[in-house]
Amino acid sequence: MNYTIPGGTRIGHSHLKVSDLKKALAFYRDILGFEVTQWYGDSAVFLSAGGYHHHIGLNTWYSKGSGAAPRNACGLFHTAILYPTRKDLALALQQILNANYPLTGAADHGVSEAIYLDDPDGNGVEIYWDKPKEKWPRDSSGQLNMVTEHLDLQDLLKEIER
After folding, report:
1. Residue 68: pLDDT above 90?
2. pTM for the full model?
3. Choosing a second label site near 132 at 20 to 30 A (CA), which of 45, 98, 145, 146?
4. Distance CA 128, CA 116 (A)
5. What are phi and psi of 26, to 5 degrees?
6. pLDDT tens digit string along 76-92?
7. Which of 33, 30, 32, 38 lies closest to 54 in space, CA to CA?
8. How confident is the model at residue 109 (pLDDT cuts 50, 70, 90)?
9. What letter does residue 21 receive in the DSSP assignment?
């Protein structure tokens, strides 16, 4: 059988091991703006955008007080948070800049515009918005031709004024 996952399938949430819930909440809740939907004792918390049960789970079950996972080892490269519009991404970028939180990169991928940063435990986080599908770059045979090009952050921030 040649199974193909249904097109409507989505990744529902990321559940991350963190060393300190307070530090993680300062990032995911206070900077990125996720809302707490439930605490699980004092060792886990679930966060959401828009009232979903949870988009992000944070726990210290195996990781309380530990250091970050080695960057050059197997594991999560990043979790990606999709914003509905370019303006929403610009507002998130402004919030991050206002908090003086460091970025690790930014790119125009042809299909999307993305900003990269690490959470307090070194977990990679991508925040992005998808360009309209009809504008995605394709080669002569119709295959996607994603790229990694410079993203003009000042131009993105102008979206707030529009």
Report:
1. no
2. 0.93
3. 98
4. 9
5. -60, -30
6. 899 999 999 999 999 99
7. 38
8. very high
9. H
Confidence of residue 97 (pLDDT cuts 50, 70, 90): very high
User: What would the two tokens of residue 107 be?
Assistant: 């790119």
* Domain range summary for the chain, segments of one domain joined by +: 11-64, 77-162
| Residue that is written with structure tokens 């993203």 in the block | 151
> DSSP letters of 25-82?
HHHHTTTT-PEEEEEETTTEEEEESTT-S-SEEEE-TTTTT--PPPTTSSS---EEEE
Q: Please give the DSSP secondary-structure letter assigned to residue 144.
A: B
Q: Which CATH class is domain 11-64?
A: alpha beta
- Place 48 in a pLDDT band, splitting at 50, 70 and 90: very high
DSSP assignment of 93-115, as one string?
HHHHHHTTPPP-EEEE-SSEEEE
CATH 3.10.180.10 fits 77-162, yes or no: yes
Alpha-carbon span 80 to 129, nearest angstrom: 10
Q: How many CB atoms lie within 10 A of CB 53?
A: 10
Judge whether 11-64 and 77-162 match in fold.
yes
Task: Give CA–CA dist 159/149, Å, rounded.
Answer: 19
